[in-house]
Amino acid sequence: MKEVLNSVIKFDLHIHSIASKYKENKSIVDQSTKENVKVLLDKLNQNNVALFSITDHNRFDPNIYVEISNILSSQDHPYHNVKGFLAGIEFDVVLEEGMAKCHIIAIFDTNNEVEKYNIISENIEVNKLTSKHEVYTKNNFEQILKDIGLNTILIASQRKDIHNQSGNHNSLSDSVHDVEQIIRVGYINALEYQKPRVEGILLNNLKEISLPITLFSGSDCHDWTCYPYHDKQNQNKDFYHSKAKILPTFKGLLMAITSPETRFNCSEYTNTCSISSIKIKDDEIPFVNGINAIIGENGSGKTTLLKAINGKTTEVYVKKIISINDIKVNSSIDTRKIKYVEQGEIIRKFNNELLFSKGDEEYFKKIDFTPFVEAYTNYSDNLKKSIELQIKKKEELNSLSNYKIVFEDGMNTKNYFVNITGNEGIENIKNPHENAFNSINVLLSKFDILLSDEYFMPYKDQLVRFLKELISIKEEIQKKMNEISYAVYIKNIMHSCIDNYLEKIKKQLSARDRDIIEYNKKREKVINAVISAIMSSQKKISWPAIPLIISGATKNLKQGFSFNRVAKYNETCMIDSFYSKMFIKEFNSLNKLQSINTSDLYLKAVRDCTSISDIDIKWAANLDKFIKEAIDTDEYIMDGTNQQIGNTLGEMSLSYYKFFTQDDRDWEVLIIDQPEDNISNNNICRKLIGYFDAIRDKRQIIFVTHNPLLVVNLDVDNVIFVKNNNGKLEIKNGCLEYENMNTNILDLIAQNMDGGKETIEKRLKVYGKSN
């Protein structure tokens, strides 16, 4: 039974038999005959070579292939490591007139059918080279391939630098002037080398070529008893077999050559936690440690399988499908280690501005708005005080005309009771040191936090010195504040005593006593008004300085991305915005605000205020509105090239996939329902495929898709085709190259995915080269 899923295997497509004897001077191929095929198979088995080909010089012996087929098709053969073989010929070809020859191995798609072996043999016999010095021209070579009519893979020998055209090496560069061009047009599908140092040279050469070409080794074994060496005398001790992740078939080799990045030099899978299979009644469908793509028509049950795998089985239709098909998941993984992206989840998060969890501080760090809020709150308070002080100054000067007193003789006569005046308002004295004392206490509390922070331990001595200075300043301010507080305290006691005394004598006063008291009160008011007006006129109004420009931004570098949050006020002078929110247009500058000297102008200036009694409320509301708008933030993401990621759904979807595929510490299995949604085919090919490909060797990926690019171009390891027959699921699966009598994975993709046929044809363009 054929393998359903591919695995990393060794292969060797350059082995000779006795059919090559006409070109050899020695008897090194004399024992490499049909009768000794088991010698070769035993050597291949010992070296764990799963796929091989007999590629003789310009010859083809179908009998050797038939013998190999007979042996490997028997159930009791002992060569279990040898899985498959391919028909091939090593041609001597001159590709450009005047140049030397090169060796080109042609591998044919015969499917081990005798009729196809005979077709190859007949065409070679008709065009047989009789001398070891003879070669095929390019036209002869192409005509032979056309007459054979089988799908063909061409592998050119390259035993040196591709720019070395000195000849005598049978290399591609000996036969064409422009090696890069013949590779770029796809005439040659792969290059074969024999020594490791040559591989390094070729890799360096090919860095400049945008289209990759596959490189692999060939043993060039002539004496099977010496495999993997050439013969007893010529032993390449440095030779090592190439490996590829393929089925041991022609189509497997073709898939590898058309996707060398994913098939060759594969890393060993490192994820030990995975979903191993899903059982549907008696059928068990395996999942690979790599990329698994679930395909099928709409409504076939693809999403149900994803939900079953992820343990999301509460929905009625999901329960029904699971019950009918007796679905069971074989998994060794905690569901918390599964990252599941449901269909429509990205667009929903995008529309709600939650794709990168706006406000989630794991990505976007908080901005400390305190410096900005404090700066503009203080500016607002001081501006308000200045305006009100200016109004008071003007009003106190104007109010002198309201104070009139007529001198009356005899009003200085002493009463029986002591007459006390000037008792009003002494309890309303404000302590001028209180704000400063509170501010320094805030600083001291911050110092306590700094001293307890391990980060600041190297600066502890400096901080302690600063702390001592602050404590000294605090003590001095506190002393001044206490003196004022004590004076106010004493005055309040006196005020209370005087009030009690005046209340007590009130009932014992004569009419004249009352007149004298009232007269003295009026006189006291006039005196106080004059003193207050004089003091106000002498007092200079200090208008507050405009707040400095303040930084309000954070940056969080994470997994090659920069998550940036920026407040509106960041590095911006916000004073004009402040004025526009606080005041009407006629008063939206400091110069205009300095002209306010009456309550009427004050009322007019404050935005949305209609009453003198509401000024404080409206002022506070306007300030709050300004601060809320100023601290509003904008979030954006920069990629590793310092380019800002676009804000369209498609661009953000790509960035989302790129981000979490790079940040895979918290999950082991990635399950996505239709990752292609919202992303153009161009970006699927250029970017999305690369994101998934980068983690295929360390994380298990399972996704549902309708886009053939994500199956064929991503070169998925396991295709799972789902068909729904009245609730009963039928599933076929295998790697891209898998086919048997009932299943052909590439045909299923072509027939059931829009654009599938065209996508396959573009990838497998080597088909038809010789047709």
List keywords for this structure.
single chain, 771 residues, alpha/beta, TIM Barrel, Rossmann fold, nine-stranded mixed β-sheet, six-stranded mixed β-sheet, 25 helices, 21 strands, elongated
Structure summarized in a few sentences:
The chain is an alpha/beta fold and 771 residues long. The chain is 40% helix and 16% strand. It has three domains: 7-263, Metal-dependent hydrolases (TIM Barrel); 275-354 and 647-760, P-loop containing nucleotide triphosphate hydrolases (Rossmann fold, 3-Layer(aba) Sandwich), CATH 3.40.50; 408-538, no CATH class.
If you had to describe this structure to a student in words, what would you say it looks like?
- By secondary structure, the protein is an alpha/beta fold.
- The protein has 3 domains: 7-263, TIM Barrel (Alpha-Beta Barrel); 275-354 and 647-760, P-loop containing nucleotide triphosphate hydrolases (Rossmann fold, 3-Layer(aba) Sandwich); 408-538, no CATH class.
- Helix content is 40%, strand content 16%.
- The strands form 4 sheets. Strands 1, 2, 3, 4, 5, 6, 7, 8 and 9 form a 9-stranded mixed β-sheet that branches. A 6-stranded mixed β-sheet has the order 14-18-19-12-20-21, sandwiched between helices. Strands 11-10-13 form a 3-stranded antiparallel β-sheet.
- The longest helix is centred in the middle third of the chain and has 46 residues, at 460-505.
- The chain starts with 6 loop residues before the first strand and ends in an 8-residue tail after the last helix.
